[in-house]
Amino acid sequence: MAACGGVPLRSLPRLMQLSQQLLEANPAEFRVALQVDARLVPPAGAVPLLIIKVEPRTAGEFEAIDKSCLCS
Fold first, then answer.
1. pLDDT, mean of each 10-residue run, the chain (72 residues)
2. Within 13 Å of residue 16, how many CA atoms lie on the same side as its CB?
3. Global pTM value
4. CB 56 within 8 A of CB 48
């Protein structure tokens, strides 16, 4: 989580506690909420791209996730 931009420092301890619970979670029940800074406006005609990349700290701990999608 240290490399994630925009994660409030006060949230990090809670996120660290959730790490094992997130690994065991049912993917159908897992949701992510994003808070977007309204000051970050893409150029006219541009479409934002959401990139989600999750890698295990130790190789083989779980299958890595690397997804991207256009946000329109």
1. 55 71 74 72 81 85 84 67
2. 8
3. 0.44
4. no
